[in-house]
């Protein structure tokens, strides 16, 4: 099969990564774009040379020339658009989180099972070279049995505002937005064990911090500091996730807190351990000697090359040339974990899955 004809639905901040990757890929023709904002759709089409411009995703999906779509809209629209795309026979790369709620995730997973088309969830951290290298070491058995993982993504001022700040539109705050990446990368490196139970707490203590001056942050396309969210998302979340194989993960994340920003991902096995972020390092022992291994890579940190790798993997899977890398059931599993953390926080109890 030759290059696929691709459309991108939702043309806000993250769509650049998809548009750049498709434009530059020999395996794709970027033919269509769609956004409910007609001005944004027109300017993105001109910028990227897309010949078809839509403001209604249903019209894009009805176009028989389009083989595959990226869905880069806000979280609460993912389920509806993914299911419609799969039913139209289009291959789908959907931005994370797969959906904003557990009910939607179950519906998407069922639609993916009914469809012959590929559904890939944009767990982009899996495609960063540092993660790909670490996975090779793990798969070769160099770390042994992984029994503990620890991930932190704390932002002092990180709420992107707009729909991200409103639980009804986003499904939650840093837990669903950042947590989905960081819980997923640990879960994937651990070999995707089944989840046994979850305990978690989310805090609403500080708010979105739109008052902070002279400090740049990622902002949603509909950011408006004068419009407070109807149902504000949490500032900070922390959780302990236990797996049926006995392994445990500890995780915390924030949009707002008083402290220094921190991003750290660590996994611990009985033969070796590793830090994936901020930069890849592997820790082990040999001949009664402690060893720190620093792989020599273009970038030992998370690299934006990951977005291109993610898109190439999606195109290869859609062509039938590669195995699925982040399928719907992995999207569903993360939404199950995140929903259980919110439930545990609400009830004050451990949630057994
Ligand atoms: N992988 C990552 O690193 C990463 C980073 C940021 C955001 N994201 C995810 O990407 C998605 C989009 O985030 P963003 O930051 O680009 O948001 P954004 O607010 O910047 O852009 C969303 C765009 O979607 C458009 N839109 C909304 N509803 C639509 C519809 N029904 N049809 C067509 N267009 C529609 C909006 O007009 C807007 O242009 C979210 O799910 C977010 O979680 C992923």
UniProtKB/TrEMBL annotation:
Domain (Gfo/Idh/MocA-like oxidoreductase C-terminal): residue spans on this chain: 135-351
Xref: SUPFAM superfamilies: Glyceraldehyde-3-phosphate dehydrogenase-like, C-terminal domain, NAD(P)-binding Rossmann-fold domains
InterPro entries xrefs: Gfo/Idh/MocA-like_OxRdtase_C (IPR004104), Gfo/Idh/MocA-like_OxRdtase_N (IPR000683), Gfo/Idh/MocA_Oxidoreductase (IPR052515), NAD(P)-bd_dom_sf (IPR036291)
Pfam families noted in UniProt: GFO_IDH_MocA, GFO_IDH_MocA_C
Gene3D superfamilies from the UniProt entry: Dihydrodipicolinate Reductase, domain 2 (3.30.360.10), NAD(P)-binding Rossmann-like Domain (3.40.50.720)
Gfo/Idh/MocA-like oxidoreductase N-terminal domain location: 4-123
Superkingdom of origin organism: Bacteria
Family annotation (PANTHER family): D-GLUCOSIDE 3-DEHYDROGENASE, UDP-N-ACETYL-2-AMINO-2-DEOXY-D-GLUCURONATE OXIDASE
Family label: Belongs to the Gfo/Idh/MocA family.
Listed name of the protein: Gfo/Idh/MocA family oxidoreductase
């Amino acid at each position: 099969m030759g290059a696929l004809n691709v459309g991108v639905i939702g043309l806000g901040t993250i769509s650049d990564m998809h548009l750049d990757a498709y434009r530059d890929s020999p395996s794709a023709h970027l033919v269509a774009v769609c956004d409910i904002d007609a001005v944004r759709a027109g300017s993105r089409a001109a910028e990227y040379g897309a010949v078809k411009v839509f403001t209604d995703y249903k019209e894009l999906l009805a176009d028989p020339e389009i083989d595959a779509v990226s869905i880069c809209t806000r979280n609460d629209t993912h389920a509806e658009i993914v299911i419609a795309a799969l039913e139209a026979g289009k291959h789908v790369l959907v931005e994370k989180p797969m959906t904003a709620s557990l009910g939607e995730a179950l519906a998407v997973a069922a639609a993916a099972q009914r469809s012959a088309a590929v559904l890939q969830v944009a767990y982009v951290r899996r495609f960063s070279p540092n993660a790909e290298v670490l996975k090779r070491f793990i798969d070769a058995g160099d770390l042994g049995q992984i029994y503990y993982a620890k991930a932190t993504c704390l932002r002092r001022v990180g709420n992107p505002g707009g729909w991200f700040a409103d639980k009804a539109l986003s499904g939650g705050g840093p837990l669903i937005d950042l947590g989905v990446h960081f819980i997923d990368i640990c879960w994937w490196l651990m070999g995707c064990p089944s989840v046994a139970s979850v305990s978690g707490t989310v805090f609403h203590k500080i708010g979105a911090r739109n008052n902070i001056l002279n400090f740049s942050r990622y902002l949603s396309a509909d950011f408006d500091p004068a419009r407070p969210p109807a149902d504000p998302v949490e500032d900070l979340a922390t959780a302990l996730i236990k797996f049926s194989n006995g392994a445990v993960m500890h995780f915390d994340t924030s949009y707002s807190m008083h402290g220094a920003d921190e991003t750290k991902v660590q996994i611990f096995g009985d033969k070796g351990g590793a830090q994936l972020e901020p930069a890849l390092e592997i820790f082990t022992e040999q001949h009664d000697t402690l060893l720190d291994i620093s792989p020599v890579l273009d970038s030992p940190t998370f690299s934006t090359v990951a977005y291109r790798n993610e898109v190439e993997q999606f195109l290869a899977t859609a062509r039938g040339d590669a195995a699925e890398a982040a399928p719907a059931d992995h999207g569903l599993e993360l939404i199950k974990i995140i929903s259980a953390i919110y439930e545990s926080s609400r009830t004050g109890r451990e949630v057994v899955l």
